Amino acid sequence: MTPRHRPHPIAKLQRWLDLVIFLLGRPHPVPIDEILRSVGYVKDEADERDLESARRMFERDKEELRAMGIPIRFDRQAIHFGREIVEGYRIDDREAYLPYLRALEHMATSGSPKDRGASLPEARLTLNDVREAVLALQDLATNPTHPFAAEALRVLRKMAFDVDLDRWAGAPAAVVDTEASTTRSTLLKLAHALRERQTVSFRYHGAARGQTTQRRVQPYGLGYRHGQWYLVGWDPDRDAIRTFHVGRMAHLRLIGPARAFTIPPGFRVADYLRRHPWELGDGPPRQVDVLFPP
After folding, report:
1. Which among 177, 219, 282, 294 is least buried, having the fewest CB atoms inside 10 angstroms?
2. Domain check: are 151 and 226 in the same one?
3. Are 217 and 199 in contact (CB under 8 A)?
4. Bridge partner list, 248
5. End-to-end distance of the chain based on CA atoms, in angstroms?
6. Is residue 4 a part of any domain in this protein?
7. Are the C-beta atoms of residues 90 and 75 closer than 8 Å to each other?
8. What's the structural domain count of the chain?
9. Are 65 and 89 in contact (CB under 8 A)?
């Protein structure tokens, strides 16, 4: 009698990593059967018995990952401009990634600690904690022979958005390079315009056409996705909401009076940052036929 193939082709740790990476890379909920085949729980020729065994394995993996703080959730979402509803599992990257940092002059020593669940909007550190972290990261980032020098430099650059690194002597110049400094200055201006409900004007280099144009935008929100900052707002010249990569802006100015517009009720920045690349642009949607070689 031929031994029955069991649907356990990969090790548990690898399966966990593959599952987390797969869900983080998907903007919409993924049905369980697609997860089972894409992550490697079963092979394409698996029968119903194999699928049932794989579903139980997925449920165990899901609960164990949840217990470790990985926010795997079952969700229902509209896609394709509301024409289709999908149900399945997803990891919301707003809950999966590290929180913003806040440096405090004094840390309270009494009272219960702040809840540290899966979603952490803010992590509080004393100035001494930040100083020790910055100095240690500087040592790594400035040592070209250290295997994690590049990683330490990236951490310092990310910290620069939340913490003023210039207050400690010896902060490496690479942390606040021209691009990072320009982006931070632009973000501060955009945040002020957003708070005051004031229109902004800037030169924008579009990636699709490679052209630079002058734009006017009423800022509705700022969002951070895949290591980049984006502005979402109303473009009166195009009579539509548009998304702009902050790093492609230049010569940003605040124009007109404050309180010049209101943000529509129900507006969410995340709804626009989850869009696929082919959903961006100024033109109307078009249906195309794509031919693939046999």
Report:
1. 294
2. no
3. yes
4. none
5. 39
6. no
7. yes
8. 3
9. no
